[in-house]
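Anyone else keep sequences and structure tokens together like this?

Example one:
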Amino acid sequence: MMKPITLYSNSREETETLATRFAQTLRGGEIVFLRGPIGAGKTVFVKGVARALGLKSSPTSASFSLMKAYRSKKHCLFHIDLFRLEANEVFNLGFEEMLEDEHAIILAEWPDPISQMLPQDRLEMDFILKQVDRREIVCTAHGPVSAARLEELCQTIPA
């Protein structure tokens, strides 16, 4: 596990810019856990990633559909939102298919119910509300793929 890195956002636009920079590091095969309270910017971040990947559909909160797939010729983004589910309620949601696609990018909001089902190499992003629009996003990489993506992201952020 890499030492956590804290990123900052002062607006929706800055969160989208951060998501765009992050999307530029993605190659497929990444799993990202997004945690934080409602309104912390998790879905804004997912939308920014999707837009930067050139996906035509824009993700919405997946709370009522649990998992949505967004595909283009180059990318497949799975957006998972398990807000109200318990671990014993997440079987038979199609995770096996999602994990078989080595080029898929998995962004999971409220991921705790599936954390033991997914590979251990993952990036965890904890969105912490500070004041009004200010957020701290604490990023922790677990595994070499996630560590590489986080390092690449940090290189794109102005000092």
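And example two:
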Amino acid sequence: MPSQSKFEGIDFSQLPVEPLTPELLSLGQGFRCVRGEFVTYWKQGRIQRESDANVCNCWILRVDDALVGYITLLADKLQVENPLLAAEGVKYQTFPAIKIGLLAVDRRAKGAGKYLVEWAIDYVAAALVPMVGVRFVTVDALYDRDTDPAYDASGFYTKLGFEFVDPNESLPPETPYRTMYYDLKPVIEL
């Protein structure tokens, strides 16, 4: 008899995304992420330390006392070669942005990563855009050439509407990531 996934049948979009609080730090027992370092970051307190230092803020998704995943957001800037908004009369090459710093989801929680990114886009558009100028969400999509095959998170973000800052970047990239952006304007206009 095949074993059931810990999170099988759960509609993650029906769960609240919660800000990380000290009471929630004990979550994480049994958290299984495809990238083991993201489990280590949680268990060794890196996420909490960075949050306490106001480097980022973290939100979690959980089912009872089980950590489904977490996402961190921080201030960023999007720098491009060609002005993205020239058609709108804005000729800047640097734009204010919010970065998805870390996105980690239990490998048994299918669809939870997509939900956390969609939540983050909606959160930035609804809560931050009215208060400060923010036009883009950025992410440095992990590219790990040391695995076989290479681990490339950019496909996940492409499916969600993110675009490459440098679409002609050669692979493997010089850095262990590929910078991508999401234009918030369509979400803001809704």
